[in-house]
Design brief:
The chain has helices at about 1-10, 15-30, 35-50, 55-75, 80-105. The chain is mostly helical. Helix 1 runs antiparallel to helix 2 (about 15-30), helix 3 (about 35-50) packs antiparallel against helix 4 (about 55-75) and helix 4 (about 55-75) packs antiparallel against helix 5 (about 80-105).
Length: about 110
């Protein structure tokens, strides 16, 4: 299913790709547990999809979940955790810049 999500995404069917990846994440939660590394991987992938669509609030939420799950499953210093944390920080900075830009227009 994750491969199908990627194929849909790459073919421009972004909303269908996201929906497929969300279903895959739910199934991983049922199979491996909601706090598993597998769920963290799907949360991270969802975050990147949302980020690419400039849906920053959704991206932030998914990155926060992936950071939390990676930290608890593979450790806070693991490259997965560090990469997810770095991506989260980039999204937060983009959100802050958008807020500041909006205030400057007022």
């Amino acid at each position: 299913r994750a491969k199908l999500a990627m194929i849909l995404w790459e073919s421009g069917e972004h909303e269908l790709g996201i929906a497929q990846l969300e279903r895959t994440a739910e199934e991983a939660g049922e199979a491996y547990g909601p706090d598993s590394r597998e769920v963290a991987l799907f949360a991270y992938n969802l975050a990147t999809f949302y980020q690419d669509l400039n849906q920053l609030a959704h991206a932030r939420k998914a990155y926060e979940k992936s950071v939390r799950l990676f930290a608890s499953t593979v450790g806070p210093e693991h490259r997965y955790t560090v990469t997810a944390q770095t991506s989260l920080e980039k999204v937060v900075r983009r959100m802050d810049r958008k807020v500041k830009a909006g205030k400057q227009k007022e």
